[in-house]
Sequence to fold (420 residues):
Amino acid sequence: MRPNDPDVVVIGAGCAGIAAARALIAAGKSCVVLEADSRIGGRAQTSDVLGAPFDHGATWLHQADENPLTRFLGAHIDHDTVRGRHLHLGDRFATRAEMAEYDRACDAFETAIAQAPSDPDRAVSEVAPQGGRWNETIAHWLGAQINAAELSRISLRDYVAVDLEGPNLLPREGVGALVARLAEGLPIRLDHAVTRVNWDCPRVTVEGDWGSLRAGAVVVTVSTGVLAAGGIRFKPALPTGTMEAIHGLPLGLLTKYGFRTLGADQLGMQPFHSARRLIGPDTTTSMSWIFRPFERDQIFGFVGGSRAWELAKEGAAATEAAARADFAAMFGARGAKLLGQAVITDWGTNPLFRGSYSHARPGHHESRARLSLPLGGGRLRFAGEACHSRFAGTVAGAWLSGEAAVRGLLDKRRAVTDAP
Ligand SMILES: Cc1cc2nc3c(=O)[nH]c(=O)nc-3n(C[C@H](O)[C@H](O)[C@H](O)COP(=O)(O)OP(=O)(O)OC[C@H]3O[C@@H](n4cnc5c(N)ncnc54)[C@H](O)[C@@H]3O)c2cc1C
Fold:
């Protein structure tokens, strides 16, 4: 390989960058992956900070039967087979009959969205069922918690196009560790932030404080949050259509937190059980909780959407305090005693990400396809979770988009179909 003049430079060593590098090497091409961080994996990161594997970002392999990462999995559990969902109603947990009623309301909610006319495109909230005992809770769950943004911010067409169904597999080693395993042996240069990409010449030049590299093509996999904030300068400037696509795909925020548990009190929850609160007049937002995965002394959870952004601005201590209060609202002083050392993620404030994962704004459902179009005769391509329609927002989408970008590069006929 020519280390300072590879066939392709890949920017970012997250799932998309790793998949792209693997595909390039498999095709006999030389490549260098430039990563700003001092670790690989991007939004897939596992650490032992709580004494056992803890995923800071991606946690499950969704749609596992078709997920490209499933084939690499080691030990794991199918989370869907764990029947322990608990909904707290303010003074007690829902009974089995109430949970059945809630599940029926969820089915009706999702059916109403799937069957709603989507032309013209509009916000999901405009067609979502309103009122009743459960709908606000369902909207909060599908919006802020699952999509990291309220349903009022999300394009109906984009929402319906994305598959986030089960099986949902939870790897014992962690999704981040799985992804890191797949990066072994790749030519990744850590602490190599890219500040500038010149793509107007026959060979692309990629620059940073560390120096520069020239290559035949570049695959950019940084998040749309980084691109929208101007984290990389492009010369010439990106076409208007590409910029519109980037701004049409903002990152929502899902802040994940984890606690080491103290003592043996199970609070009536089995390993992998989940709990969250009913949204109602007194509770406008809820966090979500998963208990003792793989019988570890850990409880983890999430806060999403605008509440997560508010808390992120206030800092990790505010998120931790809010999480402890949310837990105490369900389990009282007995629960409070269980939560020990905390880890609070900072995806929203970290300039290498600026959020958790993308959604399309209402009216911007075509942005994912648009961002995936090659530029400069195929010299410049974008990849990453935001570039995949069906598995948007996931490691699966990121992986597949990295592979697709390389397929496009290798296929000379497709390279000439430039974005306007
Ligand atoms: C809390 C949370 C929970 C999630 N849960 C799930 C889940 O359960 N299942 C699932 O499938 N997905 C989940 N996701 C989403 C999933 O993690 C992402 O969709 C996926 O990891 C994105 O991969 P990517 O390669 O597109 O981008 P990234 O992982 O963001 O990779 C881009 C890389 O570019 C680097 N970079 C940034 N700027 C520069 C620069 N200037 N120069 C060089 N490098 C740069 C970054 O450091 C990063 O490593 C979750 C995400 C979060 C945050």
In short: Residues 413-420 have pLDDT under 50 and may be disordered. The longest strand covers residues 254-261.
